[in-house]
Amino acid sequence: MVLDIVYEQISPVFQTIRYRLLLSYLAVLTVILGLFVVAVRTTFAHSSKQDLTNRVAVLAKVASGGLDLEGENLEVDSSDVTLNAGQAVQWFDLEGKLVDQRGDDPLILPIDPNQSVQIQRLPYAAEGVTLPVREEERNDQLIGYVRASESLEALHKTLWRLDRGLGGGIILALLLSGVSGIWLTRQAMQPIETSFRRLQQFTADASHELRNPLMAIESNAAVALKYPEGIRTSDAAKFRAIASATTQMTALTEDLLMLARSDQMPTPIQHRVNLSLLLENLVQLYGAEAEIKQIALKAEILPDLEVLGDAVQLTHLFTNLLSNALRHTPDQGAVGLQTAREGSQIWVNLQDTGVGLAPDQLAHIFDRFWRADRVRSPGSGFGLGLAIAQGIAQNHGGLITVTSQLAVGSCFTVRLPADSEARAMVKRGLG
């Protein structure tokens, strides 16, 4: 089946959904991992900091036993003090003057008896714990202070290694999750894509099979109306209703078939199309309809605008846009068609003075079977024309955009790659 052969080409919408699901999954996972890392890092840093404070406090307690008051002088006995790398001990008198110190890189901050823990940032990071020293033999008389300190460099290095490890773990987890997420989203989307392809194939087959019986009904109704002698007047009205309904159903099946075909595969870009001539012919064709409705149909078409593509489909595209503009423009209104070329792009602007659309309606203008409430009428179609036009434009490497304002009008802009750019797209396999 054609749908099976072009499986990867019929599902740009599903590819977009896959990417959105994958990105959403990775975003949620990133947030969860980020919160987990912050919690682990915060807990570890607090625990390590508390351990360092307790370690320094024990060192200060041990060092406080080495400060004695002999007469009026303070003497220091540091024989019981064992220091590790980065640790230091300082002894002070009651006035805060340094009596003695041991160790490397002690704190250079002035002692503050009212602050038991001091943090030094410069010239090097360190934490100190200050304890009062009392003489038991003199009724716990306060004789001085001892301050033990330890460098925070080792703690900072440990936290830095932890940060690198956690950061690397997050990156690795996201990479593995991304690979597994691609597989999971494919598995999740596969049943939906299969159902969509079957529905798409059914739409194409049903539309194709309905064409013959509808043509038969339309032909028989036309024959009956051509020779009204053998039918009653009331029956003639019924045959006209049948013919009108058949015409609408035929148009619907043709649109559905076009839509199904445009979804199944990209347009084979192989013919040079004179877009200027195509647009001039359409303006001339719809001139009579515009004249009947007293609509000023004006066209400013640059000569020799060429694109590569399917002339039939491009005609269908601009026919839908032009007929849509004329349909929704009131009598004595205006419809203008202008072309321009900017670099490798051809622009076709179709401006009307119709009923216009509200901002919230613009997001749905190219949705299938969607019609604005204000323009729903028996002659307004089935809401497929603009969807088909957008599909054709995209299959030709282009895009249709729209701006609109209620009671002012709408402007549809078709952007298509010029002939040279389209050839380059074909060579790159983007056509």
Structure description:
The protein has helices spanning 2-5, 12-64, 153-226, 233-264, 275-285, 287-292, 311-327, 359-362, 385-395, 419-428; strands at 67-70, 73-76, 87-92, 98-103, 117-120, 126-135, 141-151, 272-274, 296-300, 306-308, 334-342, 345-352, 399-405, 409-417. The protein has 431 residues and is of the alpha+beta class. It folds into three domains: 2-34 and 160-262, no CATH class; 65-151, no CATH class; 266-428, Heat Shock Protein 90 (2-Layer Sandwich), CATH 3.30.565.10. The strands form four sheets. The protein has a five-stranded antiparallel β-sheet with strand order 4-3-7-6-5. The protein has a five-stranded mixed β-sheet with strand order 9-11-12-14-13. The radius of gyration is 42 Å and the shape is rod-shaped. It starts with a helix and ends with a helix.
Main attributes of the structure:
10 helices; 21% strand; 3 domains; five-stranded mixed beta sheet; 431 residues; single chain; Heat Shock Protein 90; five-stranded antiparallel beta sheet; alpha+beta
